[in-house]
Amino acid sequence: MVRCVIEVRSAVLIRATLTSKGQLTIPKDVRDRLGLKSGDRVVFEFEDDFVRLRVERRKGLGELMGSLPATRPYPGKEAEREAARQYLVRKTLEGP
């Protein structure tokens, strides 16, 4: 038995022009479709004669939590606030 799988893709062709400085403006339709914002990075992946553009997503603060080793246990939000208050009182009393 021979199985044939046909993949049908709807291709959209959008063009952009390279400037004399080597810069490429990504058209608004493409930016919107990919959810690109100012400061986002785009990765160029080369495979034979093809180039694939991939968005390098920025990590949110929640994703970074726990990525660095803790040097001490977290005392809690209230303890941090109290330490900040004490610091500000000390700095205010010391003066300039």
From TrEMBL:
One of its GO terms (molecular function) is DNA binding. The keyword Repeat does not apply. PROSITE patterns: SPOVT_ABRB. SMART domains: SpoVT_AbrB. InterPro entries: SpoVT-AbrB_dom (IPR007159), SpoVT-AbrB_sf (IPR037914). Residues 13-58 form the SpoVT-AbrB domain. Keywords: DNA-binding. This is AbrB/MazE/SpoVT family DNA-binding domain-containing protein. It comes from Rubrobacter tropicus.
